Amino acid sequence: MSLNKDKVYSDLKELRKNAYAPYSNFRVSCIIYLKNGNEIKGVNVENAAYNPTICAERSALTQMIAQGYNKNDVEIVALYTDSEELGSPCGTCRQTLFELLLENQEIWVYNKNKFVNSFKVIDFLPYAFTSKNIK
Ligand code: THU
């Protein structure tokens, strides 16, 4: 499967409209492209109590698991934020990305203006705390 970076960007921009972000007004979208061609979409969903807010990445990853897929089914993870800067995943999402994806999984990061860079999961969380640490 070959994904087009511009098409992915326009899909992420369209998906960002679904974000529920009345408090921050900062929209984030995430699409997990599976090897079988399916797409799993996530957006940030905020809450007046703030704490229950879920980020776009974890929104997509939890659906991936609920739908019966796992790390071996993933082709590309694409992430968009409304940022002018890099707009990289928060700490909690880094830990969840590490838990549920291969450490070499490619993540394409886009911001408000453009494709920024391609990263690997391990880039976001070197020395991660993992299941190995609790054996
Ligand atoms: N947000 C995400 O969805 N993903 C991240 O990795 C960073 C932050 C959301 C949470 C909140 O709804 C808004 O961005 C502002 O922090």
Automatic annotation (TrEMBL):
Biological source species: Spiroplasma floricola 23-6
Enzyme superclass (EC): hydrolase
InterPro entries according to UniProt: APOBEC/CMP_deaminase_Zn-bd, CMP_dCMP_dom, Cyt/Deoxycyt_deaminase, Cyt_deam_tetra, Cytidine_deaminase-like
Pfam family, one: dCMP_cyt_deam_1
Active-site residues, as the UniProt record annotates them: E57 (proton donor)
GO terms classed as biological process: nucleobase-containing small molecule metabolic process; pyrimidine-containing compound metabolic process
Residues given in the record as substrate binding sites: N44, V45, E46, N47, A48, A49, Y50
Keyword Zinc applies: yes
Cofactor(s) the protein needs: Zn(2+)
Protein name as annotated: Cytidine deaminase
Taxonomic superkingdom: Bacteria
Binding site for Zn(2+): C55, C90, C93
Family as reported in the entry's similarity comment: Belongs to the cytidine and deoxycytidylate deaminase family.
